[in-house]
Design a protein that fits this description.
Blueprint: E1 8-12, H1 17-28, E2 32-37, H2 40-49, E3 54-58, H3 64-72, E4 83-86, H4 102-130, E5 133-138, H5 151-170, E6 176-183, E7 186-187, H6 190-194, H7 199-205, E8 212-213, H8 214-226, E9 235-238
Parallel strand pairs: 1-2, 1-4, 2-3, 4-5, 5-6, 6-9, 7-8
Helix pairs in contact: 1-8, 3-4, 4-5
The structure holds NADPH dihydro-nicotinamide-adenine-dinucleotide phosphate and 2-hydroxyethylsulfonic acid (8X3).
2-hydroxyethylsulfonic acid (8X3) is lined by residues 140-142, 184-185.
Length: 254
């Protein structure tokens, strides 16, 4: 197994959901944590509940300069990042392509794609120099199985999945691991964000099914990063038992 006791993990989007649960899971393994997101009040609260060294970092992944400033401003003990969990991301809206808000599309592209590649590009050289590292990208089943009105969200996650596999190819020969996590329906603030704060509509998404929890996904991340060094978990696809890709559908006239 890989011990996390002297490892430093940077988790983006640690203020909620999967990122927050991942912070708890990696803290339980003894990792030191850099907790990054825009809502630093939540991060401070999370840091206060963890029994490992933590650094709270204000971060908007849509702003390349704040990413650079955040990394440049890391205290000495947190600079040598061993594990990068690229988790910050979101869906905005659920409308067909002719009706979707262009602003929503652009924010998803800026966050899920541009934010993730910028973080990766800035953290990777240090990992290469130190000869160790693990990048964990949070993609989605929506990147593999398209569904109506997921258009740009699904495409952004297809990008993440492809990028993860391409990173594996680029890093072959370097002792740096890459894992793509592909969750299905997971009950977090995800749907509330997708529906612009409409909690009632968000609640309906999980009505009468048993969705995954953020802890379920965090557990898969914990497993991948603690696997023995010779073992790279390329991708993990997880769905609730009550969700499945159900194949091609037909819309009939009338
Ligand atoms: P949450 O809404 O609960 O958490 C999203 C996190 O992303 C928050 O911590 C938020 O922090 C952060 N974030 C969003 N935008 C930015 C930004 N511009 N800069 C920095 N941080 C940002 O949702 P989840 O935990 O469910 O989502 C986490 C990841 O999991 C996402 O990438 C999502 O696409 C993916 N996913 C989720 C699934 C689900 O069903 N829930 C299924 C498949 C994948 P803050 O607002 O404080 O900045
Ligand atoms: C979100 C997963 O199944 O709700 O990334 O589209 S799903």
């Amino acid at each position: 197994m890989t011990s996390l006791k002297i490892k430093i993990a940077l988790i983006t989007g640690a203020s909620s959901g999967i990122g927050e649960a991942t912070a708890h899971a990696l803290a339980a393994e003894g990792a030191s944590l850099i907790l990054a997101a825009r809502r630093t009040d939540r991060l401070e609260k999370l840091a206060g509940s963890l029994k490992v060294p933590t650094h709270v970092a204000a971060l908007d992944v849509c702003e390349p300069r704040t990413i650079e400033a955040m990394l440049a401003g890391l205290p000495k003990d947190f600079r040598d990042i061993d594990i990068l969990v690229n988790n910050a991301g979101l869906a905005l809206g659920l409308s067909t392509a002719d009706a979707a808000e262009l602003d929503d599309w652009n924010v998803m592209i800026d966050t899920n794609i541009k934010g993730l590649v910028t973080m990766t590009r800035l953290v990777l050289p240090g990992m290469k120099q130190r000869g160790r590292g693990h990048i964990v990208n949070i993609s989605s089943v929506a990147g593999t199985y398209h569904y109506p009105s997921a258009n740009v969200y699904g495409a952004s996650k297809a990008f993440v999945t492809y990028f993860s596999l391409a990173l594996r190819a680029d890093l072959l020969g370097a002792p740096i691991r890459v894992t793509n996590i592909e969750p299905g329906m997971t009950e977090t603030e995800f749907s509330e964000v997708r529906f612009h704060g409409d909690k009632d509509r968000a609640g309906l998404v999980y009505q009468n099914i048993e969705p995954l929890t953020a802890g379920d996904i965090a557990e898969s991340i914990r497993w991948a990063v603690t696997a023995p060094p010779h073992m790279n978990v390329n991708r993990i696809e997880i769905m609730p038992t009550m969700q499945a890709p159900a194949g091609i559908t037909v819309k009939r006239k009338g």
